[in-house]
């Protein structure tokens, strides 16, 4: 047998036989009319059921007022206090003209069975124009929320301070659990 024939059969021939075998298996097995959920064949004329649209206040998006407990699958959040025109302990925090500082005292509890991360950047205040702002960094703020992990059964309490338009009554705290799952809690302040 010539060497070139051995090379073709050895490398390319083996790959070709594998592809032909996969093609035969795919043709023989044919398309399936069974559903992935229960293995039953759909009735003639029966349409596939579409998943129901998510409600606005489902477990992925919860909206409450300040003082009320918002519950997600593995955590709760309460805005206990809202203080308008907050004056920080230091005089180095500069407030832009037409703005005020607002202090929020929150409680978050881990009701799940795993640790989860929290971060000051998970919390933003949204004004009545839809502008979302991150918390101010005030190092002397008592019980300042930072970042870390919260163990199952653990409770985190602390303060967040934001710069918002003076007298805006359409403020809300928006807490996003993480960028992947996009579960949010919105608290009307």
Class from secondary-structure proportions? alpha+beta
How many strand segments? Answer: 11
CATH topology of the largest domain: Immunoglobulin-like
Q: Widest sheet: strand order?
A: 1-11-10-6-7
DSSP helix fraction: 10-25%
Radius of gyration: 29 Å
Mean pLDDT: 79
Count the DSSP helices.
Answer: 1
Describe the main β-sheet briefly: 5 strands, mixed
Sequence stretches where pLDDT stays below 50 over 5 or more residues: 32-58
CATH architecture of the largest domain: Sandwich
Instruction: Write the H/E string, N to C.
Output: HEEEEEEEEEEE
What is the number of independent domains?
Answer: 2
Distance between the termini: 86 Å
CATH level 1 class label of the largest domain? Mainly Beta
Q: Can you tell me the overall shape?
A: globular
Strand content: 25-35%
Give a description of the structure:
This protein folds into two domains: about 1-30; about 60-189, Immunoglobulin-like. About 15% of the residues lie in helices and about 35% in strands. The protein has one helix at about 5-30; strands at about 60-65, 70, 75-85, 100-110, 115-120, 125, 130-135, 145-150, 155-165, 170-175, 185-189. The strands form three sheets. It has a five-stranded mixed sheet, with no helix packed on it. Strand 6 (about 125) and strand 7 (about 130-135) form a beta hairpin. The longest helix is centred in the N-terminal third of the chain and has 27 residues, at about 5-30.
């Amino acid at each position: 047998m010539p060497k070139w024939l051995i090379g073709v059969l050895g490398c390319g021939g083996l790959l070709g036989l594998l592809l032909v075998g996969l093609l035969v298996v795919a043709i023989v097995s044919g398309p399936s009319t069974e559903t992935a959920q229960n293995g039953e064949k759909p009735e003639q004329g029966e349409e596939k059921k579409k998943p129901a649209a998510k409600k606005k206040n489902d477990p992925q998006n919860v909206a409450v007022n300040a003082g009320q407990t918002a519950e997600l699958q593995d955590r709760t959040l309460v805005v206990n206090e809202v203080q308008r025109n907050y004056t920080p302990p230091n005089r180095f925090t500069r407030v832009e003209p037409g703005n005020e500082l607002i202090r929020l005292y929150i409680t978050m509890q881990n009701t799940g069975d795993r640790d989860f991360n929290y971060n000051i950047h998970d919390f933003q205040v949204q004004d009545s124009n839809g502008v979302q702002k991150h918390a101010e960094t005030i190092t002397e703020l008592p019980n300042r929320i930072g970042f870390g992990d919260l163990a199952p059964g653990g409770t985190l309490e602390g303060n967040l301070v934001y710069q918002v338009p003076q007298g805006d009554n359409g403020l809300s705290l928006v807490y996003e659990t993480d960028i992947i799952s996009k579960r949010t809690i919105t608290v009307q302040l």
